[in-house]
Design a protein that fits this description.
The radius of gyration is 22 Å and the shape is globular. It is built from 14 helices and 21 strands. The strands form six sheets. It has a six-stranded parallel beta sheet with strand order 2-1-3-4-5-6, with helices on both faces. The longest helix has 24 residues. It has three domains: about 120 residues, Methylthiotransferase, N-terminal domain (Rossmann fold, 3-Layer(aba) Sandwich), CATH 3.40.50.12160; about 230 residues, tm_1862 like domain (pyruvate-formate lyase- activating enzyme); about 55 residues, OB fold (Dihydrolipoamide Acetyltransferase, E2P) (Beta Barrel). By secondary structure, it is an alpha/beta fold. Bound molecules: S-adenosyl-L-homocysteine (SAH), iron/sulfur cluster and FE3-S4 cluster. The site of iron/sulfur cluster (SF4) has 10 residues, from α6.
Length: about 450
């Protein structure tokens, strides 16, 4: 019998990258590899990378530096760089990072076994071809690093929105949706295996579209099909683009108890001038009208967003527009970033990265402080309420407690009494921090 070789995978970046690593795990398993969590015993190390901001790339460079000593002691060790940084830098990465043997872009993972074989004959191997149709629809991901409760399913790949600051359309290629039937089947299988929450993933899930015979499946139809699998299966999704989040979807979210009441709607900036330069294709007023629609149709919905501080030409007034939008929307949670110019994007070519670093940092800090206040207020208003919580794991801080999340995606801590991951419990909130709700189990 052929003894399986050992593969170690490290993943950076967004949930889609983590979901891709599970696909890579499946492809490698088919080719006689087992996953290991100890890189010292690995025959192959894959680093699945992110290019979204410069610091994401720097983190990977540092990791590659650390791997040098391991490669010195283990001459046969093969190191591959996968994902967005592989796609962005192509051959250049092999020239700059001598320990790298394989470069594989996000659409080239089926080719990994061949790339490995060609490395064994002493070559370096590269495949960075982007595809217009690859969705890995037939591959059943290997959930090698899972809590057995939460799972992701990629429903589409690529992005064609070309926000001027963003590298994703270049690293992930054209937008394409995955066969709806394979998504439903994967969700059913996961539910049967005991998973209780599925997040449907794509850069812009609202443009999901699949033609199945006579039937046209859009995102609203798809999420409804997943919700109907079983009332005990929760459904989430990320990410929506504000330019197309239709009322039809909001009504469907409101209709089903098991579609989570949490919408992530990245706004990026509160200033119309900046939104236009970012090529976001909506205005502050339009964004506000969508938030109003969410609050009207799904009154208990949590709303989160992404914000970029210090984009090209951002004035103090533009920045204040962002702060005032935050106050108005009362976001429950925000991912906050400093603008980082990415080579070859429209912003890099046409606009000047002219906000000084210390101003970017100062504005980001103001955004963080304001959001902390808003998150704390949002959590305070939950004290006294009772939520249905999906139990995920033992609390990090105390073995006497469990942690899970409510429908609004807020982390909830409660005593470990007769409950285990995958169960639903009702928790009455008694206190909170800016990041967590704490409570007691009620019937
Ligand atoms: N597809 C999603 C976002 C994907 S990237 C959407 O359009 O909403 C996640 C977040 O990273 C973005 O929402 C944005 O806030 C941030 N981001 C993207 N490019 C960036 C850059 N060049 N500098 C700083 N932040 C960036
Ligand atoms: Fe990037 Fe914009 Fe596409 Fe999101 S929608 S991935 S920010 S280009
Ligand atoms: Fe990063 Fe690529 Fe995701 S750039 S955020 S890993 S799509």
């Amino acid at each position: 019998m052929n003894i399986p070789k050992k593969l170690y995978i490290e993943t950076y970046g967004c949930q889609m990258n983590f979901s891709d690593s599970e696909i890579v795990g499946a492809i490698m398993k088919e080719n006689n590899f087992d996953i290991t969590f100890d890189k010292k015993e690995a025959d192959v190390i894959f680093i699945n990378t992110c290019s979204i901001r410069d610091n994401a790339e720097q983190r990977v460079r540092k990791r590659l530096l650390e791997l040098r000593s391991l490669k010195k002691t283990k001459k046969d060790l093969i190191i591959g760089v996968l994902g967005c940084m592989a796609e962005r830098l192509k051959e250049q990465l092999i020239e700059e990072e001598k320990i790298v043997d394989i470069i594989a872009g996000p659409d080239a993972y089926r080719n990994l076994p061949q790339l490995l074989s060609s490395v064994k004959s002493g070559n370096k191997a590269i495949n960075v071809l982007l595809s217009v149709e690859e969705t890995y629809a037939d591959i059943s991901p290997v959930k090698y690093d899972s809590n057995g409760v939460n799972a992701f399913i990629s429903i589409m790949r690529g992005c064609e929105n070309f926000c001027s600051y963003c590298v994703v359309p270049y690293t992930r290629g054209k937008e394409r949706s995955r066969n709806a039937e394979t998504i439903i089947n994967e969700a059913k299988e996961l539910f049967e295996k005991g998973f209780r929450e599925i997040t449907l993933l794509g850069q812009n899930v609202n443009s999901y579209i699949w033609k199945s015979g006579e039937e046209l499946v859009n995102f609203t139809n798809l999420i409804e099909k997943v919700a109907l699998i079983d009332p005990l299966l929760r459904v989430r999704f990320a990410t929506s683009h504000p330019k197309d989040i239709p009322d039809e979807l909001l009504f469907t979210i409101a209709k089903y108890d098991n579609i989570c009441k949490a919408i992530h709607l990245p706004v990026q900036s509160g200033s119309n001038h900046i939104l236009e330069l970012m090529n976001r294709k909506y205005t502050r007023e339009y964004y506000m009208s969508r938030i109003e629609a969410i609050k009207k149709i799904i009154p208990d919905c949590a709303i989160s967003t992404d914000l970029i501080a210090g984009f090209c030409s951002e004035s103090e007034e533009n920045h204040i527009d962002t702060l005032s939008l935050m106050e108005w929307a009362k976001f429950d949670f925000v991912f906050m970033f400093n603008y980082s110019e990415r080579p070859n994007t429209a912003a890099a070519k046409k606009l000047k990265d002219d906000v000084p670093e210390e101003i970017k940092l100062k504005r980001l800090q103001q955004i963080i402080v304001l959001q902390q206040k808003l998150s704390k207020e949002s959590n305070n208003s939950d004290i006294g309420k009772t939520f249905k919580v999906l139990v995920e794991s033992i609390s990090k801080k105390s073995t006497e407690h469990m942690s899970g999340r409510n429908s609004q995606n807020k982390m909830v801590i409660f005593p470990k009494i007769n409950n285990k991951p995958g169960d639903y419990v009702n928790v009455r909130i008694t206190k909170c921090t800016a990041a967590t709700l704490i409570g007691e189990i009620v019937e």
